[in-house]
Amino acid sequence: FRLALIQLHVSAVKSENLQRACGLVREASAKGAKVVALPECFNSPYGTQYFKEYAEKIPGESTQKLSEVAKECSIYLVGGRSIPEEDGGRLYNTCAVFGPDGAMLAKHRKVHLFDINIPGKIQFKESETLSPGNSFSVFDTPYCKVGLGICYDMRFAEMAQVYGQKGCQLLIYPGAFNLTTGPAHWELLQRGRAVDNQVYVATVSPARDEKASYVAWGHSTVVNPWGEVIAKAGAEETVIYTDIDLKKLSEIRQQIPILSQKRCDLYGVEMKE
Question: Whole-prediction pTM value?
Fold first, then answer.
């Protein structure tokens, strides 16, 4: 099946972002994409100072638009982090997924909050305004199971392992790495998660805006289960496409059967209830 990643240029105007995103979703569908993903923070600038201002409830204005365009195009739409989600007085970094009938299939709240301090490079603390999610998020398609993470979630190998145990063959991470962590780790982490779990890994970033207070790395990418980069964007706004070959995935798992050769008598990763 064909996967499309929309590397959107995000402005400070929510309505413009929504309109542009929906237009590119329609374009991707017209080119045969069956699963389409938007980037982290596609609907607002990225920064703790923006989260409260742009926050919405789910369902709300932005997710309603995503639901409508998913139904119109009859696709599976991974809504990046459409908006900071407000729920019970708390804010979450949330990714909503919609099916071809417009129904919401999953709502992933970012599990690991991005609190880092690299002296002289970047300091950022999502926990100043956001609360963490507490669950894994999987949704079914006619093609395969898909596991969701958001940006910093990709650094935690255990999360991807749990998704592998749940039968996921594709992991999608809307993300917005910056100009320090992007060139160092963006592709490396994707290839690691793909090889470790013998899955496809897709990451979808906002386009780079040098004038923004937080500058995203861009370079939305798809990696196959062999660890090969099979599609990659530059820094500008674009849509990249790749065909997810589940037969190839099956062949790789048969050739190097790590999933059946794990020493569960010696070690293990498990999801807690």
Answer: 0.96
